[in-house]
Amino acid sequence: MSKILKIAVIPGDGIGPEVIDEGIKVLKKMAEGSDFCFEFTHFPWGCEYYAKNGKMMADDGIEQLKAFDAIYLGAVGYPGVPDHISLWDLLLKIRKEFDQYVNIRPITLLQGAPCPLQEAKRDNINMLFIRENSEGEYAGAGDWLFKGKPEEVVLQTGVFSRKGTERIIRYAFETARRLNKSLTSISKGNALNYSMVFWDQVFEEVSLDYPDVQTHSYLVDAASMFMIMQPERFEVVVTSNLFGDILTDLGAALAGGLGLAAGANINPERTYPSMFEPIHGSAPDIAGKGLANPLAAMWSASQMLDFFGYEQRGRMVLDAIERLLTEKETLTPDMGGTASTSEVGDRVVQLLADMLNQASIPDNR
């Protein structure tokens, strides 16, 4: 009897529904001939829901989502709804309520993907960013005093707890050890004399438990330069919420653009569902035109398969994306092609069907 994996689908705004549809095609294909199957439940939450109801999700939305094994999110944001509302009342609310304190963003230059660095070698751009995802600069702590008056003051407080800082750094060390790769910490300890000095101190403390893992530590400004000039310096990277958010967009530019940028929001203890999403945003200007690139949504589907323990099938999705890129026949306009969103999805599913027919994949994980 197949194991049923219950997935909550929040297509969201703009191009979100279009790319998520193609990702679901891929997930359904990868469940064929396996010991598991997916059960998808759609939720209409997002900015359109906000326009009708004055809120981004149902009042009991978090309780509803607790029943699922994972969440598949399309995109959040649309003109007319302030970004801080669309972000804080849906995406960040889910991340925080479900303690998804690990954000994983792969920066890997696939064969056939465009890269703005003319002399970059494919093997030199292969980074795994592990971003603290629950506190830091995005803790939401602060105040707005004397609003509208000449003495107006705003306070935005970064929150770095020992628990939150140590657990993300330790997770990164465990990942680096498992992959037999180096670990780089990125901070700004010279200027942020409390939060980032503390981060650096905890990194040093935890490193004593992992003498087999080679470590590096860079200031965020230097790291930005090295990502362009010497990307081969970075293998596994751990950094704070804000720095991870910014640097992974830089990394996306190196590895083919936001159309290939995927992210996973993980609760490692699996007490709550984890969430998987493309990170390219809602792109309302091209919504409904069939122009959206679904490859990032497919990559996040691959991350979901990895999370459930089906790494071989997750790897096959990346292999299919890579074959699509090298064929250069079925690509969306952002990748230099003329294909529609659904045509790209259909071609990837076809490639996966061919690969599944040729492969022998054990059911067990």
UniProtKB/TrEMBL annotation:
<protein>
    <recommendedName>
        <fullName>D-malate dehydrogenase (decarboxylating)</fullName>
        <ecNumber>1.1.1.83</ecNumber>
    </recommendedName>
</protein>
<keyword id="KW-0479">Metal-binding</keyword>
<dbReference type="GO" id="GO:0051287">
    <property type="term" value="F:NAD binding"/>
</dbReference>
<dbReference type="InterPro" id="IPR019818">
    <property type="entry name" value="IsoCit/isopropylmalate_DH_CS"/>
</dbReference>
<dbReference type="InterPro" id="IPR024084">
    <property type="entry name" value="IsoPropMal-DH-like_dom"/>
</dbReference>
<dbReference type="InterPro" id="IPR050501">
    <property type="entry name" value="ICDH/IPMDH"/>
</dbReference>
<keyword id="KW-0464">Manganese</keyword>
<dbReference type="GO" id="GO:0000287">
    <property type="term" value="F:magnesium ion binding"/>
</dbReference>
<feature type="domain" description="Isopropylmalate dehydrogenase-like">
    <location>
        <begin position="6"/>
        <end position="348"/>
    </location>
</feature>
<comment type="similarity">
    <text>Belongs to the isocitrate and isopropylmalate dehydrogenases family.</text>
</comment>
<dbReference type="InterPro" id="IPR011829">
    <property type="entry name" value="TTC_DH"/>
</dbReference>
<dbReference type="GO" id="GO:0046553">
    <property type="term" value="F:D-malate dehydrogenase (decarboxylating) (NAD+) activity"/>
</dbReference>
<keyword id="KW-0560">Oxidoreductase</keyword>
<keyword id="KW-0520">NAD</keyword>
<dbReference type="Pfam" id="PF00180">
    <property type="entry name" value="Iso_dh"/>
</dbReference>
